[in-house]
Write a structure and sequence with these properties.
The protein is an alpha/beta fold and 421 residues long. Helix content is 16%, strand content 28%. Helix 2 links the parallel strand 4 and strand 5. The termini are far apart.
């Protein structure tokens, strides 16, 4: 079977900087904007760009991700010639290793790619929020006679050391690439989106197959530069968000509530598709108030919701108040509870009269690298008992009880992580 371009979507990452949100689910399967999951965005970009063959590479906690994407039906990727393929690591004679780097994961699926004999391979990450026409990027790649094209955008100089940074010359040609440099020579950042001419990708993967934790930024791109391949930069000027931290995840959700959001979910030309369940419409009770919020299907609101994003089947009981928060599927906020600046995962219950997100910020006692903003982060299937007070920059996981809260409080910067079966 011959394909002009296929996509390989890297969706096996843990997303450790999202803390308890990814304790039981892969980052690409985390809910976003209420009804969607993060992986919906690159998958929708593929179908909107005419890319009808997509390999999804999974590894960490893949069950829910696999269940969500299924055979690709919501994205019109249930095809006879092509379609969506889930590609986990598998046992091989003399080699049973997991995916140990982004490029290593692609190398372990070289036979899959060979089966389609593509002219070009599109490499994507499964954890970014954006819209892009990959067909336009391919046209740029072909017109520049490139072996590798890297999608890029400028970032603030103070953020440049978090990214792969490139320097370009005439005709968008990349002359230098540095992976997360301590002292960057520029601020043009890689978005982790690549188009390779397949012979170039295949050559690099085979040459580098013995490299430990082989990665595109650390190994493949430098290899291509050292071997005088033609590398070009494709400038992207639309919305793109790496929701890799708790603050950027929360902030990206809050940006959807602007009068004119940077990312418009109502775009009818370049739709974002997702797997949906048959749920009833939202219901607002007689005393309910919902202001500047995004409510998914199945929500029942009897209390007050302000400037928040609610997933499907969320219940806000009478007298409860939710502000500046992200609530995922099937969350219940009991009567009189107050929730402020929180991210609450699926199937969680906040008890009657509980106060969630109060007081002043304090440094995390759990992990300052992950928990470093004034959000309350709550894992899925968690229970918060009635009447407790929870401070800011806190993390909670599991079925907690009143005795887990000294004097009825979880101080700012604190955490409660209960053991699970």
């Amino acid at each position: 079977m011959k394909k002009k371009m296929i996509a390989m979507l890297l969706a096996g990452g843990q997303g450790s900087r999202l803390g308890v949100l990814t304790a039981r689910v892969a980052k690409p399967a985390v809910r976003f904007a209420g009804r969607y999951r993060i992986i919906d965005f690159p998958l929708s970009n593929c179908v909107n760009s005419g890319v009808d063959t997509v390999g999804v590479l999974t590894q960490y906690r893949p069950l829910r991700l696999n269940s969500h994407i299924g055979t690709g039906t919501p994205w019109d990727l249930d095809r006879i010639n092509g379609g969506l393929f889930v590609l986990p690591p598998y046992e091989k004679i003399g080699d049973n290793e997991w995916y140990t780097g982004t490029a290593n994961a692609i190398y372990q699926n070289i036979e899959f790619m060979d089966g389609f004999n593509p002219d070009y391979v599109l490499i994507l990450s499964g954890d970014h929020i954006y819209r892009m026409d990959y067909e336009q990027m391919l046209e740029h790649h072909i017109s520049h006679g490139a072996d590798l094209t890297i999608a890029c955008m400028p970032v603030p100089w103070e953020e440049a050391s978090r990214f792969g940074i490139m320097v370009t010359g005439e005709n968008d040609k990349i002359t230098m690439f540095e992976e997360k440099p301590a002292e960057p020579h520029g601020n043009l950042a890689s978005m982790g989106i690549y188009i390779f001419s397949y012979p170039t990708l295949r050559e690099a993967l085979i040459k580098l197959r013995g490299v430990s934790s082989c990665d595109f930024g650390k190994h493949v791109i430098p290899y291509c530069l050292e071997n005088e391949k033609v590398l070009t930069a494709y400038s992207f000027e639309d919305y793109w968000e790496d929701v890799g931290t708790l603050h950027t995840y929360w902030e990206a959700n809050m940006k959807l509530l602007k009068e004119k959001p940077d990312f418009d979910l109502t775009d009818t030309v370049r739709k974002i598709y997702t797997k949906t369940n048959n749920l009833p419409p939202q219901y607002l009770g007689e005393n309910a108030k919902a202001e500047n919020s995004l409510l998914s299907e199945g929500c029942e609101i009897y209390g007050t919701v302000k400037h928040s994003v609610l997933g499907p089947d969320v219940t806000i009981e009478e007298g409860a108040v939710v502000t500046d928060s992200v609530l995922m599927k099937n969350v219940v906020i009991r009567t009189g509870a107050v929730v402020n600046k929180a991210i609450i995962s699926e199937n969680t219950v906040v008890g009657e009269g509980a106060l969630v997100g109060t007081g002043e910020y304090a440094d995390s006692k759990l992990d300052k690298r992950v928990y470093n903003c004034d959000l309350v982060t709550v894992d899925e299937d968690t229970v918060i008992p009635p009447g407790v007070i929870i401070g800011r920059n806190t993390a909670i996981s599991g079925v907690t009880e009143a005795e887990d809260y000294p004097d009825g409080k979880l101080e700012s910067g604190g955490y409660i992580i209960k053991a699970r079966a």
